[in-house]
Amino acid sequence: MRHILNRIHAPLAALLLLTMTVLLLPASAQSAERGKIEAFLQVTGFDVALDSIAFSAGNAPSMLGLSAGSFGAEWTRLSERVFDRQKMRVLALDILTETLQDDALNHAADFYATDLGQRLVQAENAAHLVEEGAVKQQAGQRIISDLVRAGSDRVALYRRMGQAIDSAGAGLRSVQQIQFRFLMAASAAGIVELQLDADGLQAFLREQETEMRMALQAANLATSAYTYQGFSDAEIQSYVEALEAPLMKQVYELLNAVQHEITANRFEALAYRMKDLGRGEDL
User: Fold this and answer.
1) Between 20 and 30 A from 39 (CA), which of 69, 92, 105, 225?
2) Is residue 243 packed enough to be buried (19+ CB in 10 Å), middle (13-18) or exposed (0-12)?
3) pLDDT higher for 70 or 278?
């Protein structure tokens, strides 16, 4: 497999350029490992995680002072076109074919192909497909409260899980970049009139970092509690240890970056398409 990058993980900001480069490559340069990557996405459940990006489209109008309900069926049709699941999978395949190294791919695939790994993937896929995020959060928060009252070690395991999955701490920065790129695209498309320039908007987002970090950590804990409620403490311990392996951390760093880049890319596209639907208020 041809490697554009020497390391398995790429900075989020570089992935858009990488995507453009990959899309311009001859088909023969990508085809050798594509089938293997497709199988990897399926066995790890990352294909379903990509599909679930479409659910995030519902958050777009509120970020601009709009309501999705005011658009009716128009909004549904637009979001389905922009967040086309097949297109998002193809984009992920294009990037991963050029960046995911065989040793890391095999390491992750071997774990997720085990009985425990497949049960975890089934649980994660089911959680991804719950479209109403508030349902997961409320149920997960109740589980966390019960675990804390019982003095369970489970919460600490979930915290370790979160650290392993995002060992570089890129999650918060990625969310900020998605917001920034979406708002700037919406401004360029004439959907909103920003009262801040690009530097001012970035500064504003940085001011929200502490609050946002705490919110993300709480949300991740609740999601983990909801997703893995059917597993024993020993199974969660085994999963955490697998996630803490260096190769697995590298895999997740790349998968997270790919997922965040595709999300930002689709939100930018959505902003430009929203100009045909209506305008929000000044921000």
Assistant:
1) 225
2) buried
3) 70
Contact predicate 160/220, CB 8 Å: no
For residue 68, the model assigns a pLDDT of 64
HEC assignment per residue over 28-66: HHHHHHHHHHHHHHHHHCHHHHHHHHHHHHHHHHHHCCC
Write out pLDDT tens, residues 223-233: 999 999 999 99
Query: Rg (Cα) of the chain, in Å, rounded?
Result: 19
In a domain, 282, yes or no: no
> In what helix (H) or strand (E) does residue 246 lie, and over which residues does it extend?
helix 246-274
Structural contact between residues 180 and 267, judged by C-beta atoms closer than 8 angstroms:
no
Of these ranges, 147-161, 196-210, 260-274, the one predicted with the greatest mean pLDDT is 147-161
d(CA 32, CA 228): 36
Q: Would 280 be classed as within a structural domain?
A: no
Number of domains observed in the structure of the chain: 1
Please state the rounded mean pLDDT for residues 77-102: 89
Host domain of residue 64: 12-274
Is residue 239, in this structure, part of any structural domain at all?
A: yes
Residues 85, 79: Cα–Cα separation, whole Å? 11
The pTM of the full predicted model, rounded to 2 decimals, is 0.79
